[in-house]
Specification:
29% strand, globular
Length: 183
Amino acid sequence: MSRLKAEGIKLKIVSPLTDEVIEQLKAGDLVLINGYVYTARDAAHKRLVELINNNTPLPFDLKGQIIYYVGPTPAPPGKAIGSAGPTTSSRMDSYTPLLLSLGLKGMIGKGQRSEEVVKAIKKYKAVYFLATGGAGALLSRHIVSAEEIAFPELGTESIKKLLLKDFPAIVAIDCHGDNIFRG
């Protein structure tokens, strides 16, 4: 059974991502992301690279995974998470090619990526998704659960494992290098 299903103009995808699914995604596609993803911003990315450089196991297996560039606010009573809007992706650009080379398949954020990251997305057959900036409260409604799994001392920037249900995003850069920022 395919993990990609047309639903109107949106495509439902499930994490972890496979090459089969990634190859079907095209820049400009609207997607609904389901399954587990991991959060990481600048400080967590720096720590992940330090672990890699020291041959220390990572807190989660990168293969097929999606990282959401977000530092969510604390969860209000009765909610899985607080506001969870994307942060500027270019802040992670210096770390991204290495993570892609180790199996990371998707990233969710906002804004453009460097040419080096676009080349790595093509080389390692990955995808970059855009989430709507400024809509963190709305996006948090699509996060069913959140569990802190690494670097608690980083506070909101710790790594969390999120369960997404129909999380809305746009394919910004596909595995062929097509890029909505290049018109």
